[in-house]
UniProtKB/TrEMBL annotation:
One matching Pfam family: MFS_1
Subcellular location, record wording: Cell membrane
Protein name according to UniProt: DHA3 family macrolide efflux protein-like MFS transporter
Residue spans crossing the bilayer: 54-74, 95-116, 162-190, 242-261, 273-297, 309-330, 336-361, 373-395, 401-421
Keywords: Cell membrane, Membrane, Transmembrane, Transmembrane helix, Transport
Residue runs in coiled coils: none
Domain Major facilitator superfamily (MFS) profile as annotated: residue spans: 1-427
Organism: Paenibacillus xylanexedens
Main subcellular localisation: membrane
Entry-linked CDD domains: MFS_MefA_like
């Protein structure tokens, strides 16, 4: 136990001395803090403006479309561009869009069609931001520090999200929704400013030393090849690594199962728990808090367990806790504390399932291909999200929310069995 602690402290000390990575992480933390505030305010604003579960599901479905349709193309472009410039430009653009939303809502001019247009544009920019962030990590850190870097970044962003969610309800109650959303716009601008100061090393470090020769050849040919051939390379790479493909299919199903909770969380807080914006902030905050606790535990003790055990345990914990969020609907008191406890457990299951797989992706993927490979995997994972959002909104008019949570939670937990029959999963992890 003491050895693990010493290793963890040593890794953190080494990371702190890498200034470009710390600046990059600070920029990411600032934007996540703003995002978490905005997630509560935006959800509350949409429900107030529409009052329709179907429309909320449709809006969430639209949010995923740019990533599904253009995510791979965006990832391939990111691999050709400076990740730093991509993040600065997209964060600036997202700040402007969020600011426009706040202005229109504050003036009483925001309409439903505005929400759809702004959501599409914001999601389109995010298609570029996320691959650029992912491809930045192996460029700023040596391969030996990827796991500790990912763990530290994950923990820091979780703290930022937790802080944002903790203050979101209070901000809405004191300064209103419009000003709360406007704060997020300012934080995006600050994030872009911090990112503009990050110095990327000139020599890139490959995430997979065995493929170094292949990477150099691909880099030499990339100027002559079309962007579509580079997109095809991502397909070939994913097909060659069966585990990445299996995981993509599995988490697409997990995403589908989580859609009822994502779409109906605000109505669940209002109608089932009889709580206000503070209740929504509490549930979301405890989910992030659970992710933080789990991430810290992974940093200290995760290396003692096989990645496969962590992933399966995380999926089962997430699914069963999700199903149990239905319990408060059948209680006459303490509904909010009980729901909060299960949201905490849901949050704890997420890093167990995702962190080992994210690290594996960075370990096996050359850094020069990481943007498009990550974008392709994300596209596959999100491919069923629009269907799940629409189904959730429609089913909410036929079935009660607790029944939906029970059915989809149990389905999610059972999906972990798929991994037990995968030889590549058991051998690689």
């Amino acid at each position: 136990m003491s050895d693990n602690t010493a290793v963890g402290k040593q890794g953190m000390g080494e990371l702190i001395r890498i200034r470009p990575y710390m600046q990059f992480m600070l920029s990411k933390v600032v934007s996540r803090f703003g995002d978490s505030i905005d997630s509560i305010a935006y959800s509350w604003m949409v429900y107030i403006l529409t009052g329709s579960k179907v429309l909320m599901g449709t809006l969430l479905a639209v949010n995923f479309l740019p990533n599904i349709l253009l995510g791979l193309f965006a990832g391939a472009l990111v691999d050709r561009m400076s990740p730093k410039k991509v993040i600065v430009i997209t964060n600036t653009g997202r700040g402007l869009l969020v600011g426009i939303t706040a202005l229109l809502f504050g003036l009483g001019q925001l309409e439903v069609w505005h929400l759809f247009v702004i959501t599409i544009l914001n999601s389109l920019l995010e298609c570029f931001t996320t691959p650029a962030e992912v491809s930045s990590v192996p460029r700023l850190l040596p391969t030996s520090m990827l796991l500790s870097g990912n763990a530290m970044s994950s923990s820091a962003t979780r703290v930022a999200e937790l802080a944002g969610l903790a203050v979101a309800g209070a901000l809405i109650a004191t300064i209103g929704i419009a000003w709360t959303i406007l704060i997020d716009a300012g934080l995006f601008a600050l994030s872009a400013l911090i990112m503009s100061r990050v110095g990327y090393p000139e020599v890139l470090t490959s995430a997979n030393n065995e493929d170094k020769t292949s990477i150099e050849m691909n880099s030499h040919l990339s100027d002559k090849s079309s962007i579509f051939s580079e997109m095809a390379e991502a397909f070939h790479f994913l097909r060659k690594h069966a585990l990445l493909l299996i995981v993509s299919i599995l988490f697409a199903f997990v995403n589908f199962c989580l859609m009822p909770f994502n779409v109906l969380r605000t109505p669940y807080v209002i109608e089932t728990l009889h709580a206000g914006a503070g209740g929504l902030s509490l549930l979301s905050g405890l989910m992030v808090g659970g992710m933080l606790l789990s991430g810290v535990w992974l940093t200290q003790r995760g290396a003692n367990y096989r990645k496969s055990v962590l992933v399966i345990s995380g999926i089962v914990m997430l699914g069963l806790s999700y199903a149990m969020t239905a319990l408060p609907a059948y209680m006459t008191s303490f509904q909010l504390p009980v729901a909060a406890a299960f949201c905490l457990l849901m949050g704890m299951g997420i890093p167990l399932a995702t962190t080992p797989l994210a690290t594996y992706l960075m370990e096996v993927t050359p850094s020069e291909m990481l943007g498009r490979v990550y974008a392709l995997q994300t596209m596959l994972v999100l491919s069923v999200a629009p269907l799940g959002s629409l189904v959730s909104g429609a089913l909410a008019d036929w079935l009660t929310m607790p029944v939906l949570f029970i059915v989809f939670g149990i389905m999610l937990a059972m999906s972990a069995g798929m991994l037990l029959f995968s030889k590549s999963f058991r051998s690689a992890l």
